[in-house]
Amino acid sequence: xxxxxxxxxxxxxxxxxxIKQLTGEFKLKHxxxxxxxxxxxxxLENQGLxxxxxxxxxxxxxxxLMYTPLRHLGYKAVVVNLSDICAMxxxxxxxxxxxxxxxxxxxxxxxxxxxxxxxxxxxxxxxLIGGDTSTAPQGLCISVxxxxxxxxxxxxxxxxxxxxxxxxxxxxxxxGAYAGLQMLEREKRVFMEQPEMQPDLEGYDYxxxxxxxxxxxxxxxxxxxxxEIRPTSMIDVSDGLASEVFHLCEASExxxxxxxxxxxxDQLTYDTARELHMDPTLYALSGGEDYxxxxxxxxxxxxxxxxxxxxxxxxxxxxxxxGAVLITKSGVEHPLKAQGWDxxxx
Amino acid sequence: xxxxxxxxxxxxxxxxxxIKQLTGEFKLKHxxxxxxxxxxxxxLENQGLxxxxxxxxxxxxxxxLMYTPLRHLGYKAVVVNLSDICAMxxxxxxxxxxxxxxxxxxxxxxxxxxxxxxxxxxxxxxxLIGGDTSTAPQGLCISVxxxxxxxxxxxxxxxxxxxxxxxxxxxxxxxGAYAGLQMLEREKRVFMEQPEMQPDLEGYDYxxxxxxxxxxxxxxxxxxxxxEIRPTSMIDVSDGLASEVFHLCEASExxxxxxxxxxxxDQLTYDTARELHMDPTLYALSGGEDYxxxxxxxxxxxxxxxxxxxxxxxxxxxxxxxGAVLITKSGVEHPLKAQGWDxxxx
Lengths: 346, 346
Fold this sequence. Notes:
CATH class of the largest domain in chain A: Alpha Beta
Distance between the termini of chain A: 35 Å
Strand content of chain A: 15-25%
CATH superfamily of the largest domain in chain A: PurM-like C-terminal domain
Shape of chain A: globular
Number of strands of chain A: 13
Largest interface: A-B, 73 and 73 residues
Number of helices of chain A: 10
Radius of gyration of chain A: 21 Å
Oligomer: homodimer
């Protein structure tokens, strides 16, 4: 905000120079990325099967630039796609990134965005192999396509495949990203009303990080291989636990029982929800954007998992007729409600 | 405009129902499309090498809904991506489509858009295997990723590869899409000033079709295989002939001579340019969006091509030091100017 550095308007640069400026230094890491950015299309020579997914992030729908640093946004745009690849039990290898932005953005702003994209590529060993840049009448829109590989069809884990008696497990903790969003929104409101107030986000680092700079659980996928565990079904938690439980139930044609007291919620997430007079369980069920992996396991695989500190067993698969049910801390059964994030809120 | 049919607002439907409504009926055509829409990611088992490309279309930058039917827009969004796959000498097989749109759009409008996407999938034998839908604060943005296959690395044709003496060829005719755009823009201006006037586009069908509903030259790629022709370099004409000539020259490190009188321009394109007091050659050089293939051939391959009515030899490759040159109808040499479409116009 107080920088005096000279900025370069995008319209002074043109598309081809912009692409060169943004992607010129990028070195391909995988042998399978035969041709990257710079021709009409990229060329891939992946061994085995390929998994491919795409996601759009739209300004003022998926992010608010008032509290989202562009570098974090670039990182997150990549991560949410890598998470989808992980949810198929695949290891992500390549991405394509398209960006449409209003010409009020400067080259320096776009470079910030790409610095986050590159940071994610570095962290997850990903090649950026293509994309598109375009102006937009207003706002910023980022579309990422991610490609990963699995050894064979048997290794692929779908939403379908869970059966009665399987354990329901989740990696990491839930609700934190939503708690972080609530704090950022609160500080935004304070700033709008009293611009002279200093932001008060001290002590909330963990949940704000969960919101602004999530990670994809490639480590869990690697752990599965190491421990020789094969989940029977899997999905990533992008819309909230309840919504994902419904997806697994629907695809696998089963019911599920989730124990409220087993849902992993970080202490700071819990305290923040309480501070805002909200139910921490609701944050986990309906908040979304945690990008953890929700999966089902055969009971025989449980022993292999129980020493892994970062995976929680939160319930089990029941007959389809029993539906998706939350067993509350007081032992009461409630039908789960899918209140996940809706792309078209009314 | 005068329809009384009931419309369904998108916010009444929600994202998951919308995706189901849009993609539920789609049948996968390729054995290599193992899993399509409906899980966290799609699963592909393509033989040989894969070519992959992505393009964004943004409302009021790439299209104007005042004269672009949504069905044609959906078709074009797919075709421009297939064209990039063709430009690598590959056959397109799969696409992923992401759409962000303001919630003022109705389900019926989105279905129109998808009917065009499906029409292109049908025509070009393409599987829709994934995507994303999202609301947007305003406007419409479509991101398509296309995947194609080539038998081996030797079959891939890049922008680099042309050498001195190679012939420069182009499929179809050029400048028509831009001529069509000019007519549509003229009628829009008339309508804005005198809404009671009837649009006068009779007789302009060919060029309006070139603008609103272009085709990808998969047939040319098939012809290459049939005639056992291997171009030495190739690109598709999306930004105008001049811009594409520069790309080939730069990547191949050569110069090129283009004969103005050899550039294929349809009679209607020519007449329309004249009617608007413009230079038809400029339409071909700088108009863009023709999605024809521009490629270089060894002279020995010329005999195989000369009986193909749909390919024109328009020039040849010269030493790099001579640059990219237009030889005008009067025989004068002019350095070519790249005035192709600019993603960030100033």
